[in-house]
Specification:
It contains six helices and seven strands, in the order H-E-H-E-H-E-H-E-E-E-H-E-H. Helix content is about 35%, strand content about 15%. The protein has a seven-stranded parallel beta sheet, with helices on both faces. By secondary structure, the chain is of the alpha/beta class.
């Protein structure tokens, strides 16, 4: 009951920790050399903090180098996002950028392949190479990739859908993409 008084309306599960606000990672995370093991997840305007948290958790589990989010019109690292991330928000760098398409262009100049995900993609996720320095770009809930972001991508691919569902939730789609990339990367390591 003491915790209920200290944090009204918060589902605290009997535990409360006070800590300073966590800062987002600086853009220096993006300055590292584009080596074969580098993998970023970029979220183009994901609004729901639950989806952001789930994407952070999956990105960290798949070994991503970081998650890129726009500063505006995007969910931030709120308490909800951190709770859903279950500790991953503290383990995977999250970089907030002013202009996502410009940042993607800079990463391309450094040697990254930028692959966007959209239902109208010409190729499927399983038909392309997802190894090497890579940025996977996921669009917002309902709206998908913005036009400028899509134009910045080297390629736009889709997840093959056999059922009647038109699309997956952004966090589910991110999981499929990140783990397909991980699968391909592990195959290369086994062959070496």
């Amino acid at each position: 009951s003491d915790l209920d008084l200290k944090v009204p309306g918060l589902r605290h599960q009997g535990v409360l920790a006070l800590m300073p606000a966590m800062e987002l990672s600086g853009e220096d995370v993006l300055q590292a050399p584009a080596t074969e093991d580098r993998l970023f997840l970029a979220l183009d305007g994901v609004q729901d903090p639950h989806n952001l948290g789930a994407c952070l958790r999956t990105a960290e589990a798949a070994g991503a180098s970081g998650v890129i989010i726009p500063k505006d019109r995007s969910a931030g690292l709120t308490a909800v996002a951190r709770k859903v991330a279950a500790g991953s928000a503290e383990r995977v760098p999250v970089v907030s950028v002013t202009n996502l398409s410009r940042t993607l262009g800079q990463l391309k100049e450094r040697g990254y392949w930028v692959t966007g995900l959209a239902g109208e993609g010409d190729e499927t996720l399983f038909d392309i190479d997802l190894t090497g320095p890579l940025v996977l770009v996921m669009g917002a809930e309902g709206e998908g990739l913005r036009r400028l972001t899509k134009e910045t991508c080297d390629r736009v691919v889709r997840i093959p859908m056999l059922g009647k569902a038109e699309s997956l939730n952004v966090s589910a789609a991110a999981a499929v993409c990140l783990f397909e990339s991980l699968r391909q990367r592990q195959l290369i390591k086994k062959r070496s």
